[in-house]
Structure formats: structure tokens, C-alpha cells
Write a structure and sequence with these properties.
five-stranded antiparallel β-sheet; minor pseudopilin epsh fold; four-stranded antiparallel β-sheet; elongated; alpha+beta
Length: 198
């Protein structure tokens, strides 16, 4: 009686099939991650703005003084500063340069950068938050009305609109934020890929 002895292991064909399956799965995973992470800088920037507004509101309530959120200029790498209103009149007396001394002092840990390669496409120069949480803007700022924001957001072809618009530089990814003046919070937001469609 003869016994056949089968060798343990894989044939070359079996190994090639497994390698091809692994490569295909890795390719699909990379493509899916690319879709998932697109525009994350704009989304993270919106979270930073929301957190800075909440922190400013807390500082204003705690000290019973106006506090300001100062925004970097459009086109620059995005940053925010939190300042205390020295004379408590609700009008910011500084500028938009983080390297200069300001009549309204920067609070400790009051300089915050947004994710790399993000910029404010549109934002106020500054906004003031009162101790009660009410929000006001620099006088030449054109605030978007909530109804206009909703009309564009829910329309057939949304476009970037809002009180604060954060863009990923050289990319079509945009985060639009609508501020509620009464509460000093973000009321609505919308993420857009505003690349032109062909």
C-alpha cells in the first residue's frame, strides 16, 4: 500500500492570486480614504472657529468684559486671536497683525492657528462678544442673513456664502459658517466642493 504524501505550502499561482487581491484592496482603501479626507482642513478649521468662539464667550462672561476674536486677512494662512477689551467699549482698537502690540491685549494662549493651507475667504476683521454672549462685528462687515444662507444652502446649486468662509488653499473645498449674533455661536454650516462642473 502506497501513501501519497502531499507537500505543505502554496503554489506560485496561489501566492500570485493572494498578492493581487491584497494590492486591489489596498488601492480601494487609498481611494476611499482620499474621498473621506478631502476637505478635512476646511472642516477642522470650522471646528477651531467654533471652539475659539466658545472660549471667547467664556472669557467675556468670566471677566465681565468684552472680548474680541480677530481674524487673519483673506488669502493668508488662517489664524485667530482672542483679545480682552481694555476700555470695555466693544470696539477693537488693534490691527490684524499678530506680531504687533495691541491696545486691546492678547489673552494668554490667545493665538490659534487653523490647519495648514487653510485661509479665510471671507470673515469679519474682528467680532466682539459681550459678557452676556451677544456678538457684534467691525462696522464695515456685511453680515449674511440667515434666510439668505438657507436659500443658497438648500438651492439647486449651492455656492460659498456665509459670515465666515474657510477655504483649503488651491483646492475647491470650502466650509461656510453662519453666525448667530444673539448667542455668539455658529448657527449653521455647510461644506462645499465648489469645483466647476463640466
Amino acid at each position: 500500500m502506497t501513501m501519497k504524501c502531499r507537500r505543505a505550502g502554496f503554489t506560485l499561482i496561489e501566492l500570485l492570486i493572494v498578492i493581487i487581491i491584497i494590492v486591489l484592496m489596498a488601492t480601494m482603501a487609498v481611494a476611499l480614504l482620499g474621498v473621506f479626507f478631502r476637505g478635512q482642513g476646511a472642516r477642522q478649521g470650522a471646528m477651531v472657529v467654533t471652539q475659539v468662539l466658545a472660549q471667547t464667550k467664556q472669557e467675556a462672561a468670566k471677566s465681565h468684559r468684552y472680548h474680541f476674536v480677530v481674524f487673519s486677512k483673506p488669502g493668508e494662512d488662517a489664524w485667530l486671536e482672542i483679545h480682552k477689551d481694555k476700555d470695555n467699549n466693544g470696539i477693537y482698537n488693534g490691527d490684524q497683525n499678530p506680531k504687533t502690540d495691541d491696545p486691546d491685549p492678547l489673552i494668554e494662549d490667545g493665538f490659534v492657528e487653523l490647519p495648514r493651507n487653510t485661509t479665510f475667504e471671507y470673515a469679519p476683521k474682528w467680532l466682539a462678544i459681550s459678557p452676556s454672549g451677544y456678538c457684534t462685528f467691525n462696522s464695515d462687515f456685511k453680515e449674511i442673513q440667515a434666510s439668505a444662507f438657507d436659500k443658497i444652502k438648500n438651492g439647486p446649486s449651492p455656492k460659498p456664502v456665509g459670515d465666515i468662509i474657510i477655504r483649503v488653499m488651491n483646492k475647491p473645498f470650502v466650509m461656510c459658517l453662519d453666525l448667530d449674533r444673539a448667542s455668539g455661536k455658529i448657527r449653521r454650516d455647510m461644506f462645499l466642493n465648489d469645483a466647476p462642473t463640466q
